[in-house]
Structures are given as structure tokens and as C-alpha cells.
From TrEMBL, chains A, B:
Keywords: Hydrolase, Lyase. Gene3D superfamilies: Metal-dependent hydrolases (3.20.20.140). GO terms for molecular function: carboxy-lyase activity; hydrolase activity. PANTHER family: 2-AMINO-3-CARBOXYLMUCONATE-6-SEMIALDEHYDE DECARBOXYLASE, ISO-OROTATE DECARBOXYLASE (EUROFUNG). GO terms for cellular component: cytoplasm. The keyword Hydrolase applies. This is Amidohydrolase.
Length: 319, 319
């Protein structure tokens, strides 16, 4: 019997929310003061109903960290990581705890080590930009060294920023801007040479790596034509561009679209796709997508491929 | 024998470039002062080599209009439309002239009428935003009325704007930002009710309508959950959301990716896909994608479906 693992669930422990409000009292995080963000019993009941054996717990609410002061945020981050560890300890067969680091240098490097070595977490959640700074900034190189040396995967969540989309609606920024930011972040990691310098870096990105599988040919074309674009400062890569992008892992958070899943499969193959629900976000407080293993079954894969996507790949990544 | 029509070629007549420089002397348009942007004999030879019978001519260089003064731009736009008409007249069996309107109100409405009634052009190129203003602004409603009453299609080209992507590279804004702006523009036309109010509006968008086919389930989910998002002011649509998006037409400018073409086909069906080359942009001065009818042939469609994509659909649209 296949063990089904949801690779990208979100949680916001109530005490974390209270502390977060103090350092970042914006409207953007208010939605997370709802029981379905922290009610563990309800979560377990939902998982049971949809046959989910285990769930990765990452901290909810990526907007929280934008504009936060790193020093003021540090104790909140530390508390959040401890809380997620505690919840996982209370249900060791059901939850896989992942730490969160909204900043990737300074004392946050110590917190990384504490998450992995002290709290024995399975990996680390980062965001697609660090308060506006791209993930290929030189100052983050020690972080990638540390991640690589510990052999743990990164979970990358998009982060709302001001995308300057036409008009002022936050709606469009969220629907499309998150996909943009993920795509830019992954491309920067490739084209700056981060992925080249860190061959053992494993990274799981939301929404099947956003625009990467569908527009891979476009991305490659621009890289090949980079000499025509001023202001680009791109690494001369030692391998074909596509091979770096294929090293990323994509989750299945595509809102039930089997054709989009197929597109991801054509690009990544079954070995680099992980079932994820985005719980408790989405319709019916995340319950709809918790049941979205159905879309994977509709993909008409071999039993072995399905097993990898539903849990096997994640087990290998965190082994 | 199928008549093959390239639905989205670009041209920059030399005299237009000279006038454009005067009103918008930026680095962004300098690249267009190259023979392959205006050399008609070379263009015809390239079309012959790759078996392209006809090509739609739209004016190149969408960045040109950002920040331009509408009044100063008007005579340049008028000249550009006349020049494209003239080139088409010199080769009536090879080129299909399309007018361009970077602004959609005031005297530009008169220019629209002149393009269609006076210059007998096949339709109009617009951009995904009007100098930053979204396409669903109320002031553009008379334009959509006029377009609908004339029964001509619109060609929508993305337009570079400041997307605020992390870092300062124009590269990312172009690779991904254009896709974002197209996706936002199409969604705004649907969700504002423009497509509902104008059931006969036909619109062809570059890059197979960008993120729409791949992320259609995501787009729908957000619309269904719109009550949770403040600052959205969306029309109550009379038909299912998807049906409006399926009314758009996508071109095949996907850089040779057959899997991305398949995704477009699954969403739009063969009736709403048009072969386009993006000539003379792209590798080898556009010659590579001029030969990209090959990707369509690799899609394994019926003869009838291929014929529609390669030319039939466009003939119907401009009949």
C-alpha cells in the first residue's frame, strides 16, 4: 500500500500568529487567525478522510516577512520552528516538520543549523525573494554551502511583492505574480551559476515550478540570445541550461488541472514531481486539494511512477 | 495545398523608425534600426524558403510607446499605418496589413476608423496595457464598441513595463514579464465584464495567450474565491469563466515547444490557435521560428485541424 505524503502543507500555530502580529501588524496576515490554520485535530481528521498518511508542515503566510525587521523577526522565527517541531513530535507518524527562514544570512545561518542539527527538521522553507533581494545574491552563498553540506532539501514558496502589474489589485499580483516570482527565482538560481556551483542542492518549488515547464523553450532561447541583452550578467554554464531546471522538484499544486500536470511530467519526469495540497489554502479550507491525489491517478502513469509522486520521491529526498 | 499564413510578423519601416526616434529617443528601440526589420526582399525570400505564403504585418517594437506623448505619437502612428498599407499594396498576395494603436481613446478612435474604413486593414494591434492603464478602463469602452461593429480582430502584443521583478535586469521582465502582462490583460478583459459586454470581440494574443491555458484552473479558482480578496471589483459573469477565456485566440509563438502547443490545444482546441512566427524576432533574425510550422506538424492533428491552425482560422477571422 502506497504511503501518501502531502509535501507542502501550511500551518500557523496560534502563538506564532500572536507574536507575528506584534512585529508585522498588517492586514495581509489577518486571514491566518482562523482555526483551520492551527487546529491539529481537524487537520488530522481531514487527512484521514482523504487518505493522506503524512503531511509536511511549513509555516504559513509568506507575506508576513516582507518588510519585517530581520532582528525583530528572529525570535518569532525561532518560536515558529520550535512550535512546528512540537506539533510534529505530538504526532510523529503524521507530520514532517520543516523549518522556515525568511532571511538567509547573519544569525539566520545559526537558525538554519539549529533547525537541522538541533530540531532535526527535514529541511527548510525559503521564499522566492529575500525581502526583495534575489536568491542569487552573493551574500546567500554561505547558506547554499550549509544546505548542501547537510543534504537537506529546500522548499521554496512564492512571496508577494509589488509586481507593478497594471492597476492596483492585489488579486492579479497573487494569481500571476506568485508564478512570476517563482519563475524568476528559479531562473536566477540557474543563470547566476548557483545551481552550477552547488550540484547537490535540492529544491522543491510550489505550483510545479510555475512557468518553468511550460515555457522552458522560451527560457532557453533567451539564455542563448543573452549577448543581445544589456544589463545581464550571466554565468557561462558548464551543462545545457535545461539540465539545471530539470534538477528542481515541482509539487502538484496546480488546482486540479491534469493537463498542467502532464506538462510538468513531460518536463520533469515522475522522479521530480511531488504530491502537494497547499492545505489549508484553497477551496473548502484546503480540503478540496487535499483530495487532489485523484488528478495524479488520472495522469495514467505506471504504478511505480504514481508511488514516487505520492510519497516515494519525498522519502528519498529527506532520507 | 494548404495556404500557410504567419499570423504575427513584425516590421519596422525605416522612415517610421526615424520618426519614432524623434519622439522616443531611447535605447530600447535602437535594436530596430537593422535591415532585417525593414528589408522586404529579404523577408519575402525567407518566407519562400520556409514555405510561408502570407504574413500578417504588425508594427514592431512595443516598448516604443511606453511613456510617449499621445499627441506627439499620433502622426508617427498614422505614418506607420500608411507605410504598412503601402508595403502590403506592393505585394498584395504576400502581406496582410494590420494597423497599430498604442492608445485607444480620443483621436486614436478616428485613426482606428481610418485604418479599417480608409486603409482597409485586416485588424488592429493593441498592447497589453495602455501606457500602464489596464485594458478594462472605462474610457476604452467606445473602442471595443467600434471594433465589434466593424467585425475585425484585435492582435494583442505584450508591452514591457516596470514589473518590479527582484533585481534590475530587463531580461527577466522580458522573459516572464511579458507573459505576466498578457495574462493579466486577458483576465482583466474577462473579469471586468468587457468580454461579456462584447460577445463578438475577437482577440489574438501572443505566446498562446501566455499563462492562460496552463493555469486556467488556477485562474478559475481565484475567481470563484473572489469574495475573500479585498480590493477586487469583478463582474458577475453570465457564463462560466472558462468560456470567456476560450473565446480568445492564441498564436503558436512558443519557441518550438510541442508540449506547450499541446497544452494550448487541450484548452483552446484547433479552432482558436493560429500559426505565428514572431519574425524577425528570435534566433537567426526570425528565420528559426518562421520554420516552426514543423512543431505544428509534430502535434499529430488531423489534416483539417492543421489546415485551420496554419491558415484557415485567420482567413475566417478576417473574412
Amino acid at each position: 500500500m502506497t504511503e501518501i505524503i502531502d509535501c507542502f502543507g501550511h500551518i500557523m500555530p496560534q502563538s506564532v500568529y500572536e507574536k507575528l502580529k506584534e512585529i508585522h501588524p498588517t492586514e495581509a496576515i489577518a486571514a491566518h487567525d482562523e482555526p483551520y490554520f492551527y487546529d491539529v485535530d481537524q487537520r488530522l481528521a481531514d487527512m484521514d478522510e482523504f487518505g493522506i498518511d503524512k503531511q509536511v508542515l511549513t509555516l504559513a503566510s509568506p507575506p508576513s516577512w516582507l518588510g519585517a525587521d530581520p532582528e525583530a523577526a528572529l525570535p518569532v522565527v525561532r518560536h515558529a520552528n520550535e512550535e512546528i517541531r512540537r506539533i510534529a513530535d505530538e504526532h510523529p507518524d503524521r507530520f514532517i516538520p520543516v523549518g522556515t527562514l525568511p532571511f538567509l544570512s547573519g544569525e539566520y545561518l545559526d537558525e538554519f543549523e539549529r533547525c537541522i542539527d538541533g530540531l532535526d527538521m527535514a529541511g527548510i522553507q525559503i521564499f522566492s525573494n529575500v525581502d526583495g533581494a534575489p536568491l542569487d545574491s552573493d551574500e546567500f552563498e554561505p547558506f547554499y554551502d550549509a544546505v548542501e553540506s547537510r543534504g537537506v532539501p529546500l522548499w521554496m514558496h512564492p512571496q508577494l511583492a509589488d509586481y507593478g502589474v497594471t492597476g492596483d489589485s492585489t488579486f492579479y499580483a497573487k494569481v500571476f505574480g506568485w508564478l512570476l516570482d517563482t519563475s524568476v527565482a528559479l531562473s536566477r538560481l540557474v543563470f547566476s551559476g548557483v545551481m552550477d556551483r552547488h550540484p547537490d542542492l535540492n529544491l522543491i518549488a510550489h505550483h510545479m515550478c510555475a512557468m518553468v515547464p511550460h515555457f522552458s523553450a522560451r527560457i532557453e532561447t533567451f539564455y542563448e540570445a543573452r549577448e543581445f541583452y544589456p544589463h545581464t550578467d550571466w554565468a557561462e554554464l558548464s551543462e545545457p541550461v535545461e539540465s539545471y531546471f530539470k534538477r528542481f522538484y515541482g509539487d502538484t499544486v496546480l488546482n486540479g488541472s491534469v493537463s498542467a500536470l502532464h506538462c510538468g511530467y513531460e518536463f520533469f519526469g515522475a522522479e521530480h514531481i511531488l504530491f502537494g495540497s497547499d492545505y489549508p489554502y484553497g477551496p473548502d479550507h484546503g480540503r478540496l486539494w487535499l483530495g487532489d491525489t485523484e488528478s495524479i491517478r488520472e495522469m495514467d502513469l505506471t504504478e511505480d511512477e504514481s508511488e514516487k509522486i505520492l510519497g516515494g520521491n519525498l522519502r528519498s529526498l529527506i532520507a
